[in-house]
């Protein structure tokens, strides 16, 4: 059993004047988290805002991004407090998952 965490951001989100998604990835790498990825959406919305698409001229840094990472429970518990700080009011979801293939090492 492992834990997958999904963090919903948008391109304009920052933490300490840097893109929040990169701050999160760098933090996860520093903390030796097993697997992490940022997915850039072509369309979506965050926090009940209007739908943004990559074809809208006014999207201007507001397209959704999703940060996903998977690791063991104790590792996730250790990094969550800092992630909540970096993500601010953004949605963070955690769920138990079964690793079918690959490794968390």
Question: What is the structure about, briefly put?
Answer:
25% of the residues lie in helices and 35% in strands. The protein is α+β, with helices and mostly antiparallel strands and 105 residues long.
Keywords:
Alpha-Beta Plaits; alpha+beta; 105 residues; 35% strand; four-stranded antiparallel β-sheet; 2 helices; two-stranded antiparallel ribbon
Structure description:
This protein has 105 residues and is of the alpha+beta class. Helices cover 25% and strands 35% of the residues. It is built from 2 helices and 8 strands. The protein has helices spanning 20-30, 73-87, and strands at residues 2-10, 14-15, 18-19, 35-40, 43-44, 52-53, 64-71, 92-97. A hairpin with a 7-residue loop joins strand 5 and strand 6 (52-53). The chain starts with a strand and ends in an 8-residue tail after the last strand.
Instruction: Please list the strands of the largest sheet in the order they lie side by side.
Output: 4-7-1-8
Largest sheet descriptor: 4 strands, antiparallel
Q: Tell me the helix content.
A: 10-25%
Task: Give the helices and strands as they follow along the chain.
Answer: EEEHEEEEHE
Q: If helices are DSSP runs of H or I spanning 4 or more residues, what is the number of helices?
A: 2
Question: Briefly, what CATH class?
Answer: Alpha Beta
Head-to-tail CA distance between termini: 13 Å
Gyration radius from CA atoms, angstroms: 14 Å
């Amino acid at each position: 059993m492992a834990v997958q965490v999904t963090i919903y951001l948008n391109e304009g989100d920052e933490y300490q004047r840097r893109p929040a998604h990169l701050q999160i990835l760098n933090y996860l790498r520093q903390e030796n988290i097993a697997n992490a990825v940022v997915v850039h959406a072509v369309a979506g919305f965050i926090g009940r805002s209007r739908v943004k698409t990559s074809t809208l001229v006014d999207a201007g840094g507001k397209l959704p991004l999703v940060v996903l990472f998977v690791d063991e429970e104790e590792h996730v518990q250790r990094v969550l407090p800092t992630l909540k700080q970096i993500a601010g009011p953004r949605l963070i979801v955690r769920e138990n998952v079964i690793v079918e293939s690959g490794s968390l090492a």
